[in-house]
Each structure stands twice: as structure tokens, then as C-alpha cells.
Amino acid sequence: MSSLNAILSNSITPTTNLHSPTNSKIPKVSSIHLQCARVHSSLVSEPEKKSSVVDSSSSKAGFLGSKEVIETEGNVFVRTYARVPLVLESGKGCKLYDVDGKEYLDMTAGIAVNSLGHCDPDWVKAVVEQANTLTHVSNVYYSIPQVKLAKRLIESSFADRVFFSNSGTEANEAAIKFARKYQRHLHPDEKQPPTEFISFTHSFHGRTMGSVALTSKEHYRLPFDPVMPGVTFIEYGNIEEAKKSIVARRTAAVFVEPIQGEGGIYSATKEFLQTLRNVCNDTGALLVFDEVQCGLGRTGYLWAHEVYGVTPDIMTLAKPLAGGLPIGATLTTERVAAAINFGDHGSTFAGGPLVCHAAIAVLDKIQKPGFLASVTKKGLYFKELLAQKTEGNQHVKEIRGLGLIVGIELDVPASPLVDACREAGLLILTAGNGNVVRLVPPLIISEQELEQAAEVLAKCLPVLDQTAT
Ligand SMILES: Cc1ncc(COP(=O)(O)O)c(C=O)c1O
After folding, report:
1. CB-CB contact of 434 with 413 (8 Å)
2. Which UniProt key words apply to this protein (predicted)?
């Protein structure tokens, strides 16, 4: 372990123009736009040019800096994202660079996506290799990377079968449909087979109409009512309530995150998950583990549920699986899969050769001997460091999490701290009701970088005193 004192005595002030040599090969945003505009203007005839074609002198031709990008975004996007004023241009390892060349230490990993960091050379090689071979084919046909990835996931988990999709919410939509179809298949003579679902407080399962119905925060659900009916929310961890609410002939499935991410970094207990397993067995409901955020090595275990020794009937994955390319996966048992027929579900893009080849490169790395143990070790060290550096701070209520999914609960909103850290060159996220700092760095982060993150965080903590008064 590198010396903490040596690191702390170093300057943590972000420096400018720290682009790595590889970044010099990446064309600036402005030059990409200018090149495109030039091609356009040489290919179109005069009359078309007036009505629809981008002129290289127009405001769309190129962006000069972050201010212009932010202003333009404000004029052209549907306002779904409350973004922070930061335009990122490139990344390497755990570092990100904005358009002005300022360096940031990335403790967000694209919200638990970039487990291998940015531009991992083996991942880039795999993507380029596959892009040069075959990027997309319809699921009408077979492709080798897709079958290889499915086989790999099955060999590494409880599951017998896989369905690929393109995101976490889609992986959960597939799980919802599989649960409904399984129950229909199991109760062929019943007019009303079990169709209802159990979900939990602080849960987040996505934003499509099924997954959002399972998501606890009303803010995400109520504007879109009626969402999928038949969901009962019970308190995360409440064993007695779970026993009462999961009902035979009514409950189709129970959706639970073994470690909740978006909701505020809450970990289940073994007793809670084991009770859910037992009650599902007794009632015929399926147990679905949403490991979209906590799965694939983030806890120091390949699957978060390994920590508890409890196995689900369905597990959903997404975020880190393809190292930053869009993918979702719904893994299940033969028993559930037997209820699914041709045409019951599908997707144009899902499980294409490019994303699947990239995902195999990710699995190759995180399944290397010692990799997961290093996540555990770094996670423990990081929590220790945070505890040490924040000790005595009146706003820090709890430091929790497992492996490299870490939460710091505050008694005030975390956003002033997030802003101050960003100014100081550290990117962090919030979770829960905005009062939890969420730290989900690339899993390849070094101990030295964790020390730097803890140091910046601690130095920025006084900003919370100003907001508290
Ligand atoms: C546990 C969990 N499930 C599902 C999702 C939805 O994933 P996506 O945004 O890829 O649809 C998320 C996203 O944060 C998540 O954390």
C-alpha cells in the first residue's frame, strides 16, 4: 500500500493540459463538425442548401468551447437531464478530460458502467477488431460473439439461459414478461394466473413503463400513471412485511436489488434475501435479483448475491457488461425459460456481435485471478480512508457499501459537495434523496487514486457548513 502521507503532501489541485499522448490523436469536437459540414456542402445542390443543409458558417458547424455546447444543448434537447456544467471530451483509465483540457478523477464510471476505466487498451482492441469484422446482424441469424457471451455468462452463474437486450430497464422488462409468462404457463387452466409484483422502498429498476412501475420513487412514476398495475412496495429489509405480502396465486415475482444503488447504497442482509427465497419457494413467486448496478464485480464478487449465498430465479444485468456499450441481459433457469416461446420477446439491436465481443473482453479482465480480490481490498481501504478523513465531521452520518460501491450519508443535501469536488477535479455522484454521496469508480482504480479522492472529498466537506447555516 503506498504511503498515505506521501500522497497527502502532494498537490491535489487539478492541472490543465494533462491530456495523455493518446488524446492528441482524438480530433477536437469542433474539427469533427467542421469536417462534416464541409462534406455536406460539397454534396448538395444549391436549392437544397437553402432549406435544409448545414452551412459551415452557421452555429451548428463547430463548437468553440463548453459554454457554446451547453447553450446549444439547452436549445435542442428535450429537458430530461439536469446536467452539471461539464463537457467531457476524452478519458484514459480513471481520468476524464473536459474540452478545456482540465483533468478529473472519475469516481462515477458513467454511473457504474466503465469498470475497466476509459479506453482500456484490450477493450478498445476488441471493439475495433469486431467493428472491422461484423457490427450488427439481425437476431434472425446466429452470430459467434453472442453465443460465446451467453455461454460465458451461464458458465459463470446459476443460470441456464440468457436473453440479451440493450439497457438495464430493458433487462427488467424482459424479466417482467418472463415472470408473467411463466405464471401463465404454470397455471394454464386459471382465468387469472399470478400477475402481481413485489418491490421495495428505495428501489430503482428503470424508466420504461414496467420497470418504472417497480421503481419506488413517486417522482419517477406518478407523472406517467397509469403505469403497470399490481405492484406492492414494502420496506427494504422488512422480513415480516415480506412474509405477509408475497402471496400464492397472486404474486408473480419479487424484484430486489441485493445492494441498492440509486436508492442510496443500502445492502440487504442474508436473512432478508434468504426469507425472500423461502417465501418465493413456498408461494410459487419468482425471485428476481436486479444486479444492473451492483453486479459484475462491483462488490468484489462477480455477482452481488454470492455475498449472501442466495440464488435467484432471474438476474438482470446491464451497465458494466460491455464496458460502456449498450447492453442488457436477463439470465434465468431452464424452468422459467421453458415458458417462453418464439416471438414472446425480442429486440433488433440486442446482443449484436460488437457489444458481445466487447463484453467478453470485460469478462476476460474481471474474471482474471486476483481481480475481484483486489476490488475487495481496495473497497475496504477506501472505506477506512473515508472514515479516517471525515472523522468528526458533523454532516457525515454513515459510510457504507461493499467493494467499490460506496455511499456517504449526509444530514444535508450532497450537491454543494459534488459541485465543490468537481471544481477541485473530482467527479462524484449523489444517490437516495440527494443526501448520499455515491462513489462507484472504475474497478481498476489504484490505491493512490482512492487516496486522492478521499483527500479531495475531505478538503471540500466544509462547503456543507455553508449550506447548512
Ligand atoms: C439497479 C438498476 N436497475 C435498472 C437500472 C436501469 O438501467 P438503464 O438506465 O440502463 O435502463 C438502473 C440504472 O441506474 C439501476 O441502477
Report:
1. yes
2. Amino-acid biosynthesis, Aminotransferase, Arginine biosynthesis, Mitochondrion, Pyridoxal phosphate, Transferase, Transit peptide
